[in-house]
Amino acid sequence: MNHIFGPVNSRRLGRSLGVDLFQEKICNLNCIYCEVGATTRLTCERAEYVPTAEIIADIDAYCRHPQRVSELDFVTVTASGEPTLHSGLGKILTHLKKTVAKPVAVLTNGTTLYDAGVCEELASADVVIPSLDSALPASFRKLDRPASCLDLQQIIEGLVTFSHQYQGKLWLEILFARGINDSNKDVDALRRVADRMRIDRIQLNTVARPPLESFARPLAQQKMLAIAKQFRLDNPSRPVDLLAQGAAQEDDHDQQKDFDLESNADRQALQDEIVEMLKRRPCTAADINRTFHLGGPDKVEQLLDPLVHAGTLQKRSHGDRLYYQ
Ligand code: SF4
Q: Among 66, 67, 195, 255, which residue's CB has the most CB atoms within a 10 Å radius?
């Protein structure tokens, strides 16, 4: 199993190499908007679900190509699930800091930060991006469908304490789904929690990619802008980003990857790389082109449509866009 994917061009982290700590979807939540799919193991247990040595070996294999490493802006530790449930997280972060001379970010659903051990392990990351989708128990249950071992108040207190102890950059992500956590009451409760935290940025998101459940629907742009305005009023010097709005605004780059699409071996290698990326996140042809610089979305379609016919990939529409997954 290759635990490395990308690099992907991420709006918030630039050219970012992904490190996925799992082989299956292990999480303590089963969010209705999840892009990875249904949680196969709903658990709060921290364990070495994949040997830490196996992940470190994949990192080392990537680092054998210094040219590739030099082109990265970030390494992002994530998982097909919740990465802080991997008990080797601390070791992996320490290894990354020692061997890859690039800043390291961790994406987490923020539910385990009440655990002092997890907080200690995260200390070596340069950026931690936790989520908090709701500060009200009913909306939290509807949207994130937590394992029974989780307690929302404990999660919130953990986030607040961690935000004041952690020395790196902390970006809080909040995802809104229409009719579930977008009421005034919900937004006010989230603002009260954000006010108690030390946060470098707030990143507001909505259901922008094909979700696990069809009833997970995005907020209209006007509504997202209105919510962003409220967060900005609370603290005008703290940046508030709209993540979902930015996807269509990323710049295309002219640089080309070193792939010769006429060569079968290169085509296959490229298809494999793209499939690895799509396992973690559905993408449009334009998204894929931005990451792999293939010369336009039509070239992406030429490359991937045979995989759709073969059943390896699917095309699914969400909003007015068509996603590969
Ligand atoms: S969105 Fe993240 S936290 Fe929610 S179920 Fe998917 S992997 Fe877990």
A: 195
The predicted pLDDT at position 265 comes to 65
Contact 259, 269 (CB under 8 A): yes
pLDDT tens, residue by residue, 238-282 = 999 998 753 333 333 333 444 566 666 667 777 877 887 787 778
The string of DSSP letters for 245-276 reads HHGGGPPP-----S--TTSHHHHHHHHHHHHH
7: cis peptide before it, omega within 30°? yes
Top-tier CATH class for 264-324: mainly alpha
Domain ranges of the chain: 4-249, 264-324
Q: To test the ligand 1 pocket, which listed residue (32, 39, 141) has its Cβ within 8 A of the most ligand atoms?
A: 39
Cα–Cα distance between 8 and 96 in angstroms, integer? 18
Q: Could you tell me if 86 and 43 are in contact, meaning their C-beta atoms sit under 8 angstroms apart? A: no
**pTM for this prediction:** 0.84
Burial of 325 (0-12, 13-18, 19+ CB in 10 A): middle
Q: Whose CA is nearest to atom 4 of ligand 1?
A: 31
- Does 4-249 carry CATH code 3.40.50.720? no
